[in-house]
Amino acid sequence: MNIDPILFFSNPNLPEEISSSLRKIGLQVLCVPVLETNYEKHEGNVKKAFENIQKVKAIVFPSHRSVLALGRTGINVRHLKWYALRESTANVCLDILSKIPEVTVKKGLPELIDTLRNDTDLIGSQIIFLSGYRQKVTPIRQLKEFDISVRNVCCFSTSSVYKTDILKTLKGITPVACVFFNVAGVRIVCNTLKNTGWEWRDKCIFATEETVAKALREKKEIRRCDAIPQDSNLEGIKQMLQSYFRCKC
Question: What is the value of pTM for the model shown?
Answer without folding.
Answer: 0.76
